[in-house]
Amino acid sequence: MAISVETFFLNPDAEGTLQAKIQQMIAEGILSGRFRKGEKLPSSRKLARHLGVSRITVTLAYTELQASDYLEARDRSGYFVSQNAPEPPEFDARAPGRDTIDWSRALGRRFTGGNTPEKPQDWSRYRYPFVFGQTDPSLFDHANWRHCALQALGQKDFQALTTDYYDQDDPKLIEFILRHTLPRRGILAQPDEILVTMGAQNALWLTAQVLLTQRRTAAIEEPCYHALRDILMQSRCYLASVDVDRDGLPPADLPRYADVIFTTPSHQAPTNATMPMARRKALLEKAREMDALIVEDDYEFEISFLRSPLPALKSLDTDGRVIYVGSFSKSIFPGLRLGYLVGSRQFIRECRALRASVLRHPPGHIQRTAAYFLSLGHYDSLIRRMGQVFARRRQVMEQALADHGLGVEGRGVFGGSSIWMRAPDGVDTAELDERLRARSVLIEPGQPFFRGPAAPRNYYRLAYSSIPSERIPDGIAILSEELAHLRRLAL
Amino acid sequence: MAISVETFFLNPDAEGTLQAKIQQMIAEGILSGRFRKGEKLPSSRKLARHLGVSRITVTLAYTELQASDYLEARDRSGYFVSQNAPEPPEFDARAPGRDTIDWSRALGRRFTGGNTPEKPQDWSRYRYPFVFGQTDPSLFDHANWRHCALQALGQKDFQALTTDYYDQDDPKLIEFILRHTLPRRGILAQPDEILVTMGAQNALWLTAQVLLTQRRTAAIEEPCYHALRDILMQSRCYLASVDVDRDGLPPADLPRYADVIFTTPSHQAPTNATMPMARRKALLEKAREMDALIVEDDYEFEISFLRSPLPALKSLDTDGRVIYVGSFSKSIFPGLRLGYLVGSRQFIRECRALRASVLRHPPGHIQRTAAYFLSLGHYDSLIRRMGQVFARRRQVMEQALADHGLGVEGRGVFGGSSIWMRAPDGVDTAELDERLRARSVLIEPGQPFFRGPAAPRNYYRLAYSSIPSERIPDGIAILSEELAHLRRLAL
């Protein structure tokens, strides 16, 4: 590869002759690892013109660098970084103390320090990945996704690909969601009542910014999705945690002063509880009494392979009280970052303005690709295929868990992609996780789903969305061994 | 197209027999426009199973709907929405007053009401689009972008496509930016000093959230990019506007109490001024004295076809005081939504945590596609081609403006994609814009770039990035005519 002439800049403050500055600049490029062995340097003519110096100055610098083995000349083809050039150091070559800013003062707000756990990026290298929320390459419909992406890259869709939509969305995707996706949840909506977001996380974030302030209270489920808790903590509102039971959020336990209720009726995250119809109605009634809004994260509704999903809370809402959060990131693939918000137009208008300020709009090409994938029916077949395979995996998992007598806390009667587990008291599942990783088993410790320092440490989540059936029994066997070991230590 | 059985839900609160509820549900679907003429209904067996009712109930409902011409039966292939079915109304069919929420109370914060102008989405239908920041289909390297996207969609890149990166970025894109893009600006950075963002707008937004509070002051250029002003207004910090001159932001005029200085040294937006080297050094010196940070939006540096761009402010920064904002959205295409932030690792760490909370990460497939497009050299050729064409267009434009004696306020000595214009006093360029649209000419009124109600109304921006050379003279002639007309009215 040739090094582009535009990467060369003389340091205006450097000492010495022009030739020395050029030599120094090139040597530094090599020593810092920026220019690599075998890469071609610009011709002396080009570099001289670019730097505004005479050609002979550059030639002399090159010759010197050749003499000191930084460069090598090849007949008629110019100068290259020498194979014998000094090795760039392995450590950070920058002088220490370069940054003189007092960042503890300069940072106006901090966003680090949330409770979101570190998750392994290389999960697919583990033999027993009971990992949640990643794509199983054996299930994903790669060929058809590629086909749709290609179609959306075509000349006909040029505008969808390249245009700055300002604050708008791809009309084809909006139409599909309105006509086909939402009716499956019993929801009828108008185009100005929906906004495409960067996944469900972005939808929840926008909602929190628009509805909450330092003087308002959000009620959340306990345990709950940790990223939601981080979002609400950052919004600085009051937080009221309400313990869920086997039917999800109990309306009677909601504090009367809550302004906004965040709930996951389809599959409570992480316990997998599905809220029964009667409780859905009671929740709406309670919210009406409290004059509170409800944010319904319709998480995993599509992964209902055991029973048909119940209608969304939003479909029962006659007040405009429910804000609905949907996602394709989970069911197509998480890297897609595509979800949507449905709510009253006054609310959607504010979310749209905020989204425009934060990022303008989700990339048009991704919206159009998803629109094709959905409208050609590939999405439905993907969900059906996932349902069939998940049903089988779940059966194998249930059997293995029963064989080893492991404690299931929540399994979800509609399906889902994971089982919520409870280890014996005294077992720290973070420690369990660490021991299991060494044996190529990945689980998800449960502590981050709970609030505060008194969070129980003996829960964990086992997902079956990314592990083949045939590996499940061995994985559970290892889990059982390590659990038994930790339990003995705890006694 | 067949209507999926999953879009059918019985309204649990509806009156009447099961059969009547089914009829009502289907009729409503047709009347609301959700089910369209010729679409196939599910078989009675399927629908009965889905709703948990007897098959005869569904059959009776279908027969009734056929009798009333909502449906038609076709031999052996089932029921379809009839060609004679009632037309869905043109107006919004939902009963008024459905939304009972007092949104003026329920909304915690408002984000609408910024000064960002409405821009026509259908700009490409105008004959003379002097529109800024959109992609010219005749210049964009569609074939190679498609090629790179295809490569990034391949099995080898499956993980880059589908994976949830959590708070990380595509390592290939990061490496390219560090080794090739930043060195062209004289910047050396480490991987933990860079963050990929959803375009420059998202980079500016993240920066404002991390650095500014209600007790801090941001200094901005006047006039400046209106979306930046909206972002800063939303952050509720104090704003100090500093008038730019022909060399951009004058350091001597900066108020000493400013905490963060936002500037566009390469091409001041919208005046196109380039800050000379001496002033760049003076600005850094002044910021050091004030102990202020500088946010350098290195806007349009690559569109420098008249002279080589000067090194970035960031390259002269020895304190870690400068935060650098780069973008590919502008130079590849705006719908891409891809940019980056470079700054001290403490700062980048907070931005990364905030980005994770807001949207997790920009889609992996887009990052990987851009990495290929850059590393295969297509980006450089695109920029070169744009430079050549823009140079020609600019020449034609300058000539046409001179021929008509129109007032140029800022033209940028390095290149760029637009000219900043001044109409005679008394002319309102919003009115000019409206008149010109009727004649298929698009310009950008300048008022939104200025602060507050006293903003001058006689500036406008003329871009040559999306209009072919041969149309420029006629477009300018029409502009000149309408300007003369408005001027006569103003006198």
Give a short summary of the structure:
The structure is a homodimer of 491-residue chains. Chain A has 491 residues and is of the alpha/beta class. The first copy, chain A, is built from 16 helices and 15 strands.
Kindly describe this structure.
Two copies of one chain form a homodimer. Chain A is an alpha/beta fold and 491 residues long. Chain A has three domains: 5-81, Orthogonal Bundle (Arc Repressor Mutant, subunit A); 123-136 and 381-490, Alpha-Beta Complex (Aspartate Aminotransferase, domain 1); 142-376, Aspartate Aminotransferase, domain 2 (3-Layer(aba) Sandwich). In chain A, 38% of the residues lie in helices and 13% in strands. The first copy, chain A, is built from 16 helices and 15 strands. In chain A, the strands form four sheets. A seven-stranded mixed beta sheet of chain A has the order 4-10-9-8-7-5-6, sandwiched between helices. A four-stranded antiparallel beta sheet of chain A has the order 11-12-15-14, covered by helices on one side. In chain A, strands 1-2 form a two-stranded antiparallel sheet. In chain A, a hairpin with a 7-residue loop joins strand 11 and strand 12. In chain A, helix 5 crosses helix 13 (364-375), helix 8 packs across helix 12 (345-359) and helix 14 crosses helix 16. Chain A is globular, with a radius of gyration of 28 Å. The model of chain A is unreliable at 93-97 (pLDDT under 50). Chains A and B meet through helix 5, helix 6, helix 8, helix 9 and helix 12 of A and helix 5, helix 6, helix 8, helix 9 and helix 12 of B.
